[in-house]
# Entry
Amino acid sequence: MMHCLLHTAEMREADRRAIAGDVAPAISGQALMEAAGAAVAAAAAAELPALAAERPRRVLVACGPGNNGGDGFVAARLLAEMGHAVVVALLGPREALRGDAAAAAALWPGDVVPLAAADPRNADLVIDALFGAGLARDVASEPEAFLRAAAACAVPIVAVDVPSGVDGDTGAIRGYAAPATVTVTFARRKPGHLLLPGRTLCGRLHLADIGIADAVIASLAPRTFAAEEALFADAFPRPAIDAHKYSRGHVLVLSGPADATGAARLVARGALRIGAGAVTVGSPRDALAVNAAHLTAIMLRPCDDADDLGGLLADERINVVALGPGLGRQRARALVEAASRGAHAPDRALVLDADALTAYAGDHEALAEVGARVRAAVLTPHAGEFGKLFSGCPPVREAPSKLAAARAAAAATGAIVIHKGPDSVIAAPDGRAAINTTGTPYLATAGAGDALAGFVAGLLAQGMPPFEAAAAAAHLHGRAGEAVGPGLIAEDLPEAVPALLARLVR
# Structure
């Protein structure tokens, strides 16, 4: 269950159920706070240089008026017991603290200074315990001034739950947020830890077990996940001993004209490398020679138009069609329609990218009709394609986050949607969604998205469920990029896959 992500409302409910003992043996709110503060103190101590003989290390703990501040009071007490010189600065009056936060503050033996009087320039480390993931208002005034001063000092900042100002559900910045060196969060990660821009401010993310049982998390039936191996490993295809090439699936990739063939070959190579047993490129006749000069294990067939495609799809062994890159909008739409029809369409999956998406700009309803005719459809838009495709869909256009927008897009089309980017979101029509955690800026190169479409197609061909296939493809695509690193070009991505698969399927 560690790959589950909890929205802030779910985290509050997890706390409530853990304290009430509804699902597992009860744990008090004070015990949860003590465990959270101890995790923060341990992370802070690890960031501090060894205690010097001439002076203890100075820690400034900035506490807010809620439970986040209570965690800060616990961390302050424990760090002082370790021998560090700790100053606690509080936003608001001490008498305003309530519940477990008030109890934690009562155990702090030292003085408390107003936040406005605290100077982070005098600290070796700052603990940001001002606001947690459920922040309901923008950071401004005294908290903003303090956080800006702390950021300007370049001292290590340990954030409690999230850097104050980061929305735990969306990753958006509420007013201002100072970048943390380390963020300590509890029980499970939150979407805002993985979505941009919040992801860039968390520093190293440390997930602490504070005593909320896995059964409590499971009882919430989370629908948001990190796109990590635990999400898809059980569904990942592993060939049987009696496998043959067609039992491992046959992908048909449609090529553009002679001057636009490379994208289709990248898709095809990606599908083959990730395990599809057979891959065919359907090529316009004027591009057959160009494609033939580059293909070896990948088969080649002529395909100029929808009629040609219908003839190819009479072969029931073709169980996935990937199309869009390099096709041109008009041709792409005709081919998408043809790919979704015929006697074998209900057994076929489609992977639609690039021109196959922009051909339906503002007309997502028509694309939903396409998806309803096939076994599964996976859409792989980048931000620009996503905006064009759903320009006429208010629930998508007005969604408060990338995660919510991807979910709305999947619901509107009945398709799996991979909303690509450095924080790619994979969403299913049933409400499940995953945020990818892998990747590198070196993936910002022409053709990288084509390789991703190929990975999706190859996994679908082997019978992997569509949501898990899309999540696995995004994860492995990022891992392949990380493995290559500087100098990466799209052709490198399929070649990095075998080493990744060798570890995954072991």
